[in-house]
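Follow-up to my post from last week.
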Amino acid sequence: MGRYILQRFISLIPIVFGISVLVFLILHLVPGNPVLVILGTEATDESVKALTHQLGLDQPLIIQYSRWIGGVLHGDFGVSIRTSADILPELLKRFNVTFQLTVFSILISWIIAIPIGMLSAVKAHSPIDVIARSISMLGISIPNFAIGTLLLLMLSLIFNWFPPLQFANLWDDPATWFKKLILPAITVGIVLAGGLMRMTRSSFMETLDKDFIRTARAKGNSKGQALLHHAFRNSSIPILTLAGMQFGYLLGGSVIIEQLFSIPGLGQYILDGIYHRDYPVVQGGVLFVAIIFVVVNLIVDIIYSKIDPRIKY
Amino acid sequence: MKKSAVLIPMLAISLVFSACSSKSSQGTMADTNKASAPSQLIVAAEQEPVGLDPNKVPAASSKRIYSLVYDTLTVMDNDFNVKPSLADSWTYSEDGKTLTMKLHPGVKFHNGREMTSDDVKYTFTRILDPATGALSKSSFSSIESMDTPDKNTIVFKFKTIDTTFLANATSAFSSIVPKEVADLNKEAVGTGPFMLDKIENGQYVLLKKNPNYFKTDQPKVDSIKFQLMKDESERLAAVRSGAVDLSMVSTESAKLLENSKNIKVTSFLSAEYGYLGMNVAKKPFDDVRVRQAISYALDRNEIANTVYKGQGVPSGPISPALKAFALSVSEFPSYTKNLDKAKQLLKEAGYENGFETVIDTEAMYQDLVDASQVIQQQLQQIGIKATINKMEEAAYVEKWKSKNMTTMVGRNSSGTNPDRSLRFFFSTTGTANVWNYSNKEYDALVQKALETTDEAKRKDLYNQAQKMVVNDAPNVFTASPKIFYAVSDKVQGFNPTAAGEQYALIQASVSGKK
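User reply:
Got it. Predicted complex:
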């Protein structure tokens, strides 16, 4: 196990290196120039030249890259071109927000999807199943910004309610935290639940057909016991795979939701960076997200072996 | 049984929300009961500020903040007349080339130090230094030297007569900054009505009242919070529910809000105008007849009606908002749609069957995309087939600056004085003349206007220049939009105009009544 984890961490090195080169090249090769974005359409040629030089953007690409990656290897992600604020502290701050939203959203999706998915499987092809499947289809089909906008406008119109303006950490101010995040978490949760519900249903249906379930029932276990003790663990691997992917994906920041509900998360930060061609912010941000994604996948793999002892590394 | 399983959670959720809302209204009630409770104005901000150095940062999101933190020598009133601010009074010499300004005595920067003529001299030296990369450098290129005979007197000597100096000095880009602060993006130290209290990245900017402000009756509120809300529907919901006090809204949203309780919608005609710009150095736009044909083919009323939902006004090179100088569009022959004339001009230029071209526009602004589509359809009527290329802001700006575009649909601010509208955008050496347009006669005309102190003569010169640039048509000007604000009825005295939002914010007050 320890060796496996080490191997996985070593495999991170080429991935991260590859990503760093790719992001750097893509950013520098697409049209758009951060200096012009900063100075605006009215800038004079000399001010453009002065700022380009000051930011070191007149250096050859290879030098710019090695400067940046050298800094990153020393834990220095550099400063934003636009705001000259340090990037790493900002990334961590934003990640903290995105992480809390992600966990909340995933929880909501589980609360919705797993019980209903199980019920659907047990009562397969019954009216309950049909309704549940239709609802999950709806969850998959409606774009999340539509749900979010609808929730926000309806609540403000009907209940005259609007989420708090500021984000607060769960541990600092749980009430504000809840009010700020409940709508985005429901919005994201509903969309995730759609896919997860279908995965839960099919995975359970497959397990329920297995011989060991019949054996468990034959031993005198009730239907519920068989479902919870015998089927649950055996069905959970595909569900966990999907949930793990959703989790990793969300940790990269859900741009639209963050924008709609003014949540100062990672997605907003990186997107702003892209708009303004804030090279170090985007480079650092994407690298950061890539590392997180790989680590989350590793954690999911480790959990597999805990749930299913047959899986060994 | 099954019904209740669905109903109970729904009921619970609605209870939570109604509980929350009643709690928050109790909160505001309690606030109003305390008469001396600090008043806060909450403004929805579409974008985050990107640094607060007034001499260097052009972004509108930054400008709306630093124009409250800093002061300028002069200010504009709502009719674009120049009024005193940091400069109490001024006199010009006989030849019009020397300007002596008396500064308001005893004005203090937020760090407590008294502002003197040395700071004024420092600021303009900073603006004129190429290494600063200041935005208004070209506006002040006529300054030859400055003198500071005493701490409250500053004397400007000009190379040529510059009739726009006092108007240019109202720009927040020429805010007076203290000489001891090295990096004004890290520290904001002005003399203005508000002091920077806190910036929370990605969330808000908080300004608090400057208790020692030299205009003792301003500002009216104890603090202003610019709350970041990038999404229009979020801003709408926030204004409706009273979570923010005022927000800029789109024309469509303004219509939606017209009949809402507790909200009033105020608007003003913007100093901006939409345009179709053509690269005069590129075929077929190097032929003035082609450009004129396009001008005759466009129906500006249709653009004003569809793009700006009937709230726009056809505009020439100076937005009609600048009443004193904008020539009525009826003075421009090509503003009357005339397809026969347009086709005739195209034929003379050798493009009887039209041609294909590209319109670059900025995808982020819906009005520009809409305008491109209307223009595309209107050009089809004279055989010009245009493809629209929607670009992202960074790429668009780069193309705009490259002077190598084909045609572009955009929006410019014609500014608060005609020199900016005409010389800055269309003289051969104008900073924003990216169209390769060059007309010696025009250059001489706007330069002469700049040096003409007689108001009537000056206006006449600017009239000629407007006609000339419309006739030469490096840009085909379309319409000026209206700017809409949704304002909570708790807010009094907020009357924004094209002169500048900051003047309205300083006068705004908030009462507790809901």
